[in-house]
């Protein structure tokens, strides 16, 4: 991802550090806020900064994690959310993510405000429902595949729905 101010990662990392939840956090990407995030993470072994990754390495990262966090101020769609549901990840999204109404469907939760209390509550919800959320993400992925959407489009065009 692009580590830029509108992604609100500095704010998220600060809340994550303050929460002291025992969870780990991996950050993928590069950008103008990378050095600030790296500086914050130095003293916290539970935070891993991976930098920019090629697609094959990114697939491995998805496979090794449980939750995608995308808490941007503004995100027209957020293709990373599509990628995450394809790997069965639970979702933790801000309401401003354009793909959220279509892809956040019983497979995660919204993070309305980035505070330690709100983050703790969201992480507790995800932890309690992780198996269900992962299964639902796989279901959402199958329902939003190109093949599934094309079949739906054709059924409407042909009147066979």
Q: Short description, anyone?
A:
The protein is of the alpha/beta class and 161 residues long. Helices cover 50% and strands 12% of the residues. It contains 7 helices and 5 strands, in the order αβαβαβαβαβαα.
Core attributes:
12% strand; 50% helix; two-stranded parallel ribbon; single chain; alpha/beta; 161 residues
Structural commentary:
By secondary structure, this protein is α/β, with parallel strands linked by helices. Helix content is 50%, strand content 12%. It is built from seven helices and five strands; from the N terminus they run αβαβαβαβαβαα. It has helices at residues 9-19, 34-41, 55-63, 79-86, 100-103, 116-143, 146-158; strands at 25-28, 47-51, 67-70, 90-93, 108-110. The strands form two sheets. A three-stranded parallel sheet has the order 3-4-5. It is globular and about 60 Å long.
């Amino acid at each position: 991802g692009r580590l830029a101010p509108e992604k609100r990662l500095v704010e998220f990392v600060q809340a994550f550090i303050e929460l002291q939840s025992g969870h780990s956090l991996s950050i993928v990407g590069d950008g103008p806020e990378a050095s600030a995030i790296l500086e914050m993470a130095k003293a916290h072994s539970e935070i891993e900064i991976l930098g920019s990754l090629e697609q094959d390495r990114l697939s491995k990262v998805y496979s090794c994690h449980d939750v995608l966090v995308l808490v941007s101020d503004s995100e027209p769609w957020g293709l990373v959310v599509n990628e995450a549901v394809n790997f069965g990840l639970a979702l933790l999204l801000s309401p401003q993510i354009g793909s959220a109404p279509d892809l956040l469907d019983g497979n995660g939760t919204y993070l309305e405000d980035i505070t330690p209390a709100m983050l703790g509550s969201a992480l507790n919800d995800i932890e309690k429902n992780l198996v269900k959320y992962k299964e639902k993400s796989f279901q959402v992925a199958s329902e939003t595949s190109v093949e599934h959407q094309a079949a739906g489009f054709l059924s409407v065009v042909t009147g066979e729905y």
